[in-house]
Batch of 4 targets.
Target 1
Amino acid sequence: MKDAQNEYIVVKAKSQGVQVIGLTRGQDTKFHHTEKLDKGEVLIAQFTDHTSAIKIRGKATVMTKHGVIDTED
């Protein structure tokens, strides 16, 4: 898991109320953390021993080492 801990994403909200949700590792995937961003706010998130996935709801730009992704309207 050490390599996963070096993975970061940047989420920039393009509208009000963008949700960034951390999902757990293990047999059962569960929500463990939620942030709500206002338009223009930026969140830097890191994958950890507890976070295996990050779900984004709303209009946002997501930046990773793999590229830049814009969510759909």
Target 2
Amino acid sequence: MSNFESKPEIKHGPAEKPGASAKPQSGDNRRGAIAGLIIAAVILGIGLWLARDLTAASKMQDCLMSGRTNCNVIEPAR
């Protein structure tokens, strides 16, 4: 008696190929990759926007905590 179990053999019909049903369509694979790329780009954009916004808020809080009253950002005239 051995410790190894034998795996049952899968028999395919004459019209079926062994790897035909397991192979994904190339269009589906590409579509999923493009969707993943778009989702990653959106998350990156949101992350950059959030980092910029939090940095500006942090600078404003630092200015206010130092006791200044004129902490508004003055943009130069163009």
Target 3
Amino acid sequence: MANPSDEFRLTSSNIHISHEGRLPRQYTDEGQGAKRSISPPLEWYNLPQGTKSLALIVQDIDAAKDPTGPTVPFTNWVVVNIPPILKGLPEGFSGKEEEVGSDYAGIKEGNNDLKVPGWRVPKLPSHGHRLEFKLYALDDELHLGNKVTKEKVLEAIEGHVLGEAVFIAIC
């Protein structure tokens, strides 16, 4: 039986199980000033052998585009071509990949469902929504052109996923 500490996993130092996994307000549109809509720090462990790049998709899995309609996940963040030498993304990484340094140079942020690149958690009509953070370990880099979307990523990774790591935050 595999040791759970050896599993490919994704976590955030600012989203604690002891606080019911709540996403702090500074990571949403409900934050204030400079402490508003900044991407949370993420860390990952135990990448599958052969990982050449990572892709991250974050979505509100309780969203409804129409309040009377069905639940349709809202894409909050898409990040591709994360090099496997990295152990995480720092807080506030979104929109600053060039500033962070050379190890981050090839990373590309895709468009969220607001049709803009980067991290975005809009004001929610009600609290208790679940944000799913899903990190894919891939056997190759993705070549998706300038406009990267969740749909393009999911299509491109088919047959290239070595592992998935997921965690849920409540907002």
Target 4
Amino acid sequence: MSETSATNTATSTTTTPTTTVSSPARLADDTSQGKTTIAASVVQKIAGIAAREISGVHSMGGGVSRAFGAIRERIPGGGTGATNIAGVQVEVGEKQAAIDLDIVVEYGASIVELARAVRRNVITAVERMTGLEVIEVNIAVNDIHLPEALDEDAMPPVQSARVE
């Protein structure tokens, strides 16, 4: 038992409070019967799936990340792994997680209501499945997907105006 205590002490003094997706798994549950660790990539996948479940979310990621994702999917073995989930970045600590999402919204959807629904669904899914406390979900809307009838060539040019 003293070896276990010494190992746990050494581990806790050498870990950092947060990690990015590429880092190893973090402590989510530590009991006298053992501990459970959850990889940041798991949190990333849960958040991505939960965000896509909301009606009005067309896709995830900005234009560049979506383009690279499409290229990666065509390469054998390139479409797997945590870093290939476009539009989802996570930081996972021992008991908390922070999530950043880049989304493309369907034209006509209320962005404010959509962001609330996405945030609520992501927090619920991550907390329920992992036991981690989600301290924030930041959402960046990078684009609006237009229906086939409205393509960007048919739209009138946007007039510049003063904005307060």
